[in-house]
């Protein structure tokens, strides 16, 4: 068995090896159980946390390396944001700024985002570069961007600094977020909804939030959007990649690590701190912008960076449980009118729905569609500087090349056009 499985797993993981220390692969390939699991992720049978068996095959915990010191005198004490400090839809970035890991004013460069996401929460470089460069391209100046809205003149030159993450609905910001409302329902897309946080906790019984509970909660949010939001839109990039990130990042980046729980454990208290929630279940309240890294908290091990392949594994595992997550389309201006578009038509024949969970296709599809970012400008559909970033990113993967996008297919959705 081992002999036949080993080459399969290596073949499965090989295109992604650049992002990992080689021993992770060697270890994985030696173990027939991991080999079988790697295969079954692709065969869609393993549950929401399936990818951790492949990407964290042996326990690693090093207290000294993983401890994030935010105590008095550390230089990274929590401070409330001031009136001119920018804060937005991302609780992780808001927390980084509140601790001075990012500039406290909320405006930072690509390099700063890449450094901080790696050092503070163990994000892999390829994912960090992609997220940070995308922010700079679609929401920023090309090299820097705001984690909230448009920066004032005191922070960055007016007119050159971009609109920030909060201003990026459908480019970066997606519908069916965990705790943020949809733009066209609440009039904003960045404020934490206490009722949605309560639903997340209710979907996570027993004191802990897990990959399984987050995926079940995502399904609930997805269905609720279809039935209550006339403008719900599940876009090819925002729906396929940003929306799952908003869920998987909660566990993969916010969980506390220890020798007993090297893959992480996310208690209610820990998630409350990261989301600026206080009070007890049934009586929560939020202080917007006060996101905080808990005291005595240990990040994920850098031996297992949460990078593109791991993230793609999580996205695939969730879609295997709930294939509708991959339905590109939206409501037609009324609730319960969700209409899908044909992926094959949308990509001018390059991708098709039946193959989307095979090999690297899903990641290729989502990342390449991220370059289709300016529906509001009549620019040609694919944004050239961004295509460069994306092609660097997908060079690790074996990707069919997206040449053009039939944008008209999306124009029937008011949530896309608004
Ligand atoms: C450069 C890196 C990052 C970028 C560009 C980024 C950007 C974003 C954006 C645009 C959203 C809104 C998405 C939506 O509409 O749902 C978001 C949400 C989110 N981000 Fe980040 N993020 C980054 C890093 C992180 C990190 C390091 C964490 C965790 C520590 C994190 C955790 C989250 C969570 C949990 C949400 C969902 C919030 C909710 O709706 O409840 N992000 N992020
Ligand atoms: C993280 O886990 C360690 C070991 O169990 C524990 O001592 C620490 O208090 C935990 N941190 C948080 C923020 O829960
Ligand atoms: C895809 O395009 C073909 C050819 O134009 C068309 O016949 C078909 O109806 C389209 N499918 C969908 C689901 O739009």
UniProtKB/TrEMBL annotation:
* Entry keywords, A to Z: Heme, Iron, Metal-binding, Oxidoreductase, Peroxidase, Signal
Residue ranges occupied by any Heme haloperoxidase family profile domain in the UniProt entry: 74-313
- Which superkingdom is the protein from? Eukaryota
Q: Cross-referenced SUPFAM superfamilies, in alphabetical order?
A: Cloroperoxidase
**Entry GO MF terms:** metal ion binding; peroxidase activity
Q: Which InterPro entries match?
A: Chloroperoxidase (IPR000028), Chloroperoxidase-like_sf (IPR036851)
Q: Which residues form the signal peptide?
A: 1-19
Q: Which cofactor does it need?
A: heme b
**Entry similarity comment:** Belongs to the chloroperoxidase family.
Q: Please give the name of this protein.
A: Heme haloperoxidase family profile domain-containing protein
Organism, scientific name: Salinomyces thailandicus
């Amino acid at each position: 068995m081992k002999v036949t499985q080993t080459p399969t797993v290596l073949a499965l993981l090989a295109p992604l090896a650049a992002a990992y220390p080689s021993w992770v692969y060697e270890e994985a390939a030696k173990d027939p159980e991991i080999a079988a699991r790697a295969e079954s992720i692709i065969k869609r049978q393993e549950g929401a946390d399936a990818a951790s068996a492949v990407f964290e095959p042996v326990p690693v915990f090093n207290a000294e390396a993983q401890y994030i010191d935010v105590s008095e005198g550390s230089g990274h004490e929590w401070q409330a944001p001031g009136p001119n400090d920018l804060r937005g839809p991302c609780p992780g970035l808001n927390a980084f700024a509140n601790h001075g890991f990012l500039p406290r004013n909320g405006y930072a460069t690509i390099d700063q985002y890449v450094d901080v996401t790696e050092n503070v929460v163990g994000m892999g470089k390829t994912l960090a570069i992609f997220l940070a460069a995308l922010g700079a391209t679609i929401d920023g100046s090309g090299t820097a961007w705001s984690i909230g809205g448009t920066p004032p003149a005191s922070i960055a030159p007016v007119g050159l600094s971009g609109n920030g993450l909060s201003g990026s609905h459908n480019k970066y910001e997606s519908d069916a977020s965990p705790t943020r409302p949809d733009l066209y329902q609440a009039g904003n897309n960045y404020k934490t909804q206490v009722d949605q946080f309560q639903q997340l906790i209710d979907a996570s019984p027993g004191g802990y939030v897990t990959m399984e509970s987050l995926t079940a909660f995502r399904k609930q949010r997805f269905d609720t959007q279809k039935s209550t939001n006339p403008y719900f839109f599940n876009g090819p990039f925002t729906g396929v990649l940003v929306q799952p990130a908003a869920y998987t990042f909660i566990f993969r980046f916010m969980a506390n690590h220890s020798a007993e729980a090297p893959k992480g454990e996310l208690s209610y208290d820990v998630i409350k701190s990261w989301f600026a929630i206080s009070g007890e279940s049934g009586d929560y309240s939020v202080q917007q912008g006060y996101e905080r890294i808990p005291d005595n908290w240990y990040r994920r091990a850098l031996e297992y960076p949460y990078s593109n392949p791991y993230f793609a594994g999580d996205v695939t595992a969730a879609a295997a449980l709930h294939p509708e997550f991959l339905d590109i389309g939206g409501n037609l201006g009324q609730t319960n009118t969700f209409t899908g578009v044909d992926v094959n038509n949308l990509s001018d024949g390059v991708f098709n729905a039946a193959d989307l969970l095979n090999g690297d296709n899903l990641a290729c599809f989502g990342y390449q569609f991220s370059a289709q970012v300016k529906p509001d400008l009549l620019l040609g559909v694919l944004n050239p500087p961004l295509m460069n970033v994306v092609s660097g990113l997908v060079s690790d993967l074996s990707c069919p090349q997206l040449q053009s996008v039939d944008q008209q297919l999306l124009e029937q959705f008011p949530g896309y056009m608004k």
